[in-house]
Write a structure and sequence with these properties.
This protein is an alpha/beta fold and 388 residues long. 27% of the residues lie in helices and 28% in strands. The chain has helices at 15-23, 81-94, 137-151, 162-168, 210-217, 235-242, 255-264, 279-285, 309-324, 344-355, and strands at 9-12, 27-29, 45-49, 55-61, 67-74, 104-109, 118-123, 126-131, 155-159, 173-177, 184-188, 191-195, 225-229, 247-252, 272-276, 292-297, 327-337, 360-365, 382-387. The strands form 4 sheets. The protein has a 7-stranded mixed sheet, sandwiched between helices. A 5-stranded mixed sheet has the order 1-3-4-5-2, covered by helices on one side. A 5-stranded mixed sheet has the order 6-7-8-9-10, with helices on one face. A hairpin with a 2-residue loop joins strand 7 (118-123) and strand 8. The longest helix has 16 residues, at 309-324.
Amino acid sequence: MKSKPWVAQRYQMNKDILTICKSGHPWIFRSHVSSAIEVFEAGQLLRLVDANNQTWGYGLYDPDGLIAIRILKEGKNPPENNWFSKRLDQILEKRAHLRNYTDAFRAVHGENDGFPGVVIDIYGKTGVLQTYSASVDSLGRYLASLIVEKLQLENLIWKIPTKRASKTKVQDLRVLRGHLPAKVCFREGKMNLTVEIGSGQKSGAFLDLRALRKWISSQKLHGKRVLNLFSYTGTLGLAAEVAGAKEIWNVDISKGALETAQKVHVLNIKKHRPVVADVFEWLKSLPEKEKFDLIIVDPPQMTSQVAQVPVALRAYRQLYSLSLKHLNDRGILVAACCTSRISRPKFKETVCPIVSPPLKLIKTLQPEDDHPVGFQEGDYLKILIFEN
């Protein structure tokens, strides 16, 4: 079927799909749709109707992967220009207070903000668009164009996520407006951070770790030793230095990331020790006499597949067990998990038996307002803080 993607085409839902839609979940998996849906092209806007031909809402069709329909809007009226603009205004209003603290924030957080598969991050006057499927490319570019006008951005970069780019061999970086800055500096509280959009992970930086950077920078770490595992470009190490730490070990498998950390996220280079290593293997060989007052464990996503969750949980148990051996008396351990397939309760029940006793859970960091949680899988980042 050839049709204009934004002219809605009728698709009748079965009972299973209708139940999922009413539950508020933003995805309809391919296992729930009939083969009749295959006549549509990627990104086709679908008018979802029930058995009585009543319109429930609208979604975008994806012919590839596990997700067949991404829910965009409930209600009988189709999404129009004014609807998109008003929705973005509501989203940006929720971020307004953050902009007093930082000029880098997530303007659109995918399904959690009601715009499936689309992420738009802001670094000063530069916006970075990411689209996680060809089915949402048009949606993403349209939303980004509205964001540019609303925030008066000078540059807009379209960055295809690494996993999608490698699978489809699409161009992974495009300049949609202005130019691609070599580096972008932004403020975050009392820290100045730097991002390399062209080469960095995600949109260039991990904006979702802002709450953790804020917490670390507020601690009394004068004279303390800090071990920052999976350190990437060292923003958490910088937060520890701002808090007064006398010695920070940044450990990561990426030499390039550590070199960037040394260049842009260090105040006193004598306080930082970069270590290029596989964290798991390095911890096994680290002499037990090496003790730290703060250990930050922030591993990358372990798996995106349900079947691999048990393997990921074993990895977490090993990681925190090894880390605990190097924590000083009265030390603090930060345990993070960004694997969406592992729920918040499951992560907590996995880590707590490993570290407590002797450690006690003293704080759980919640996502900030530019990373809202709208459904279970959207609660991907969990941060637990334990004290000895």
